[in-house]
Amino acid sequence: MKTTQEWVAEDLAHIWHPCSQMKDYESLPPIVIDHGKGSYLYDIDGKEYIDIVSSWWANLLGHCNPVISKAIEKQLEVLEHVIFANLSHKPAIRLCDELIKILPKGLTKFHFNDNGSGAVEAGLKMAFQYQHQIGQAQRTKFMCLTGSYHGETIGALSVGSLDLFAEMYQPMLMKSTIHIEAPDCYRCPYGLTRESCQCQCFEQAEKAFERDGHDTVAIIVEPLLQGSAGMRIYPALYLEKLRHLCDAYGVLLIADEIATGFGRTGKMFAFNHTQVSPDIMTVSKGLTGGYLPMSITITTQQIYDAFYADYLEHKAFVHSHTYAGNPLGCVAALAVQKIMREDKMLEKANKRALWLHETLEEAVGGHKHVGEIRHIGLINAIELVANRETKQPFDPSKRTGYAIYKRALDYGLLLRPLGDVLYFNAPLTTTKDTYRQAIERMQKAMKDVLG
To answer: How far apart are CA 159 and CA 153, in angstroms?
Structure first.
């Protein structure tokens, strides 16, 4: 039997981990996880970790959820995969029927992909081809918000605004993307708050549309919550204003709900906080409860109709993924919807959300290095600052958030930060007792690093 050290050595000998500087692994070697249950992970030595970040926000209903596991096990005996071109299957059809019931109004056509970046790529290409096929071929530009993240394939990087991911690849990216200054409600340049403002910052979008709106294909946004930018939260009013602006200029609105979908923001989708709908929506992560890689690009009948023609007219959307519409992923997603519906998960999560935020405020809200604890649904983001009064950030070279992350692992808490923003984004099934344990473990780590 291999020792822990042997497992780690083999990992480091062969595996190039994502989103990592592998030299860091010299001082913080990979933790080899043996199994998971609910909100907990257990390494090969039996040590427990609270997965407060849902394993990159994907694990919606707990690790090894018995309902999802049994659904996949049953499907394994029937059909594991089939080409999705000119063939279909019951789980995919049933999933579309279920999702139509909960999606924002007007989203009725489903294009299956196999990961979040792939869904974004499909959405961008779909929007571009649609504009071309309705006689708007002069539209070649895309818009996005600063601080945005939409994936790491070339198209997705082109409509992102985080240099951490995109800077190296600038020569490869689309050059016509317009980056609009995003809302920053913690450091609002207008001196307002997200609870009471009228989105005065929206003037930045109005200026961009006035200048480039007639040449723009679409704007893509992370609705209400810019995840990788540090869980930056902005008002629903911004999306409603954006919908009206897009309509005025003929620009499509793409909602990247990969991180915000399926109850993360307190409603099934972030756009459900508004009275409007996007033209294209991408979903993934919680779609299958974190079990299997699957994503969907969802659009309207109007966009779909622009592609509907005789084959030789070359209007078809020729975009495919080998594992698109995978039956195992579809039954996992169906099981997620069954649990969400029958166990009233949103109702339970929203009751727990207010308690969690109040508990976090009481525990660390007064810390001299906590600038703000912002929240939406069960997501809470703790922004660490060098000076609470001036909101001055820490020197990035000190990697304060990373230091707390490392220390929290010692206490059995998986708390992977976004720069110097610590966040809770646990499975919706996480109990109050588990949250209390997580807060206590985080406090210990913060005390060790910050005092």
So the answer is: 10
